[in-house]
Amino acid sequence: MKLKTILFLIILSFFSSCNSLSKPQSEEFSFILAADWRDKSLERFHSNEYLLGALNAINKIGKGAFMLSPGDVEPASASASLIAKVLGDNYTWYPVVGNHELEDPETMVFLRELNKNGNSLPNVVNKGPEGCEETTYSFDYGDFHFVILNEYFDGKSDMGTDGNIVDELLIWLDNDLAITNKKHIIISGHEPIIPMPDMNNGRRRHVGDSLDQYPKESFKFYQIMMKYNVLAYLNGHTHNTSYAKINGIWQIDCGHARGVEVLYPNLAYQNIKSIFNQVNNSDSFENTLFKIYNTDSYRIKKTLYYMNLTNNISYKKLNDELGFEKLKEFYTNADQLNDQERKKYFSTFWKNVSPTKSTFMKFRVFKEKVLIDIYRNDAKGGEYNLEKTLDLNLL
Known about the structure:
By secondary structure, this protein is an alpha/beta fold. It has helices at 2-22, 51-61, 76-87, 105-114, 167-179, 215-227, 265-278, 285-295, 297-306, 320-335, 339-352, and strands at 29-33, 66-69, 92-95, 124-127, 137-141, 144-148, 184-188, 232-235, 241-246, 249-254, 359-365, 369-376, 385-393. Mean pLDDT is 92; it is low at 6-23.
């Protein structure tokens, strides 16, 4: 009996050990990576086709401890308000300066005030160099040290370059990383070191005018990251979602979270139709349509161009007079067609453009790994679904 008892206990111990090994690790913390939504935080875009749809999806799957946004989130005050409305007043948001922030002085003022004196944001441990104290900084969370870089700092002004890692910024970074005692390091800036193609449609943008525009500086930046065994560099700018491990360091591009990247014809038509159904009949058709055109002329011209309605004139060069006339033509034609005919009329657009899916990422941090859940929509304003999970081993 004793022998049987011993054997039973050994077998029981073996299975208990197996169960213990197979038990999933508990999550340490999580955070969201999302950027490049630009003006889609404004009230006129408060529908699920735009940024609001991404924020609602984030709220549904779990918002984590904070959101990190690698640039182009202007106007930042509107973005902060919408994030607070959906994800809560006390939700922490770490925005990064992007190239379009430089075009919006009010956004730069807001970002400086958000981290006033270089230490107003939660968990900040090191403010940036002189002239960039509030828009470059580092913060700690768990076993991780995060660095936020303003790549538009020229050594004096926090909005002085076209995207570069100047020596003053590099020296600050070296000193910052030298004193951290955290196990893992993540750095975030707006522009990629090497622009990569989108993981779905293969589109590639900003080649030669990202950090690769300054190869000597970007090489020194990479050397610093290798010196301190940086886990990942997180960026935006390209609107393409990509990931690659380059010389041991992950470059993660979070793409854009603006929802609909381009104004597709059906949405443009429905928006105009809806406004006409609501406006005072005393206002003329042309006046109403002109007001609509003025609120979003750039995207409207882009839509008209991809429908072959601009006489082959690029939307970047199309003047407003012709743009407005072509919008009248577009709406009048579409309004006279039935649903099937209208769909055929709009099909030209889809033959000429391949929009990139809107994206956000959720980083789930464990003791031995980081899992990155990549959520994307259908590029037409639809729901977000988990498309891929990337595993970053910490061992």
